[in-house]
Write a structure and sequence with these properties.
23% helix; globular; 16% strand; two-stranded antiparallel sheet; alpha+beta
Length: 101
């Protein structure tokens, strides 16, 4: 059991989305900043906070900052996440594209 999942010798029940409440770029937590907004890009579906999106993509297209991705992203394509689960978000986007064909 990790140190973060322990408190006073007892295990803390963590929900499935708790690790998603941290920006992978700046490591800011929604716990410390409750007004933090996460944005997702439908190109690779990696979430990051709004301030990181503004900072990284203000000069134009740039590679995704998540390690191992490497896709070129544009600031205009980022949007707020509609569903809590990113897999559901991706599935709905696929179904919308198929329905429009």
């Amino acid at each position: 059991m990790s140190r973060a999942a322990q408190q006073n010798g007892r295990a803390i029940a963590r929900g499935p989305g708790d690790e998603d409440e941290i920006c992978p770029v700046c490591k800011s937590s929604r716990y410390l900043n409750p007004n933090m907004r996460f944005l997702v890009n439908p190109e690779c579906y990696h979430k990051m906070c709004e301030s990181c999106v503004d900072r990284i993509f203000s000069q134009g297209p740039a590679p995704c900052p998540v390690a191992g991705c490497g896709r070129t992203l544009r600031k205009a394509r980022f949007r707020t996440q509609t569903f809590g689960d990113i897999k559901v978000e991706r599935e709905v986007d696929i179904r919308r594209r198929v329905a429009s064909v």
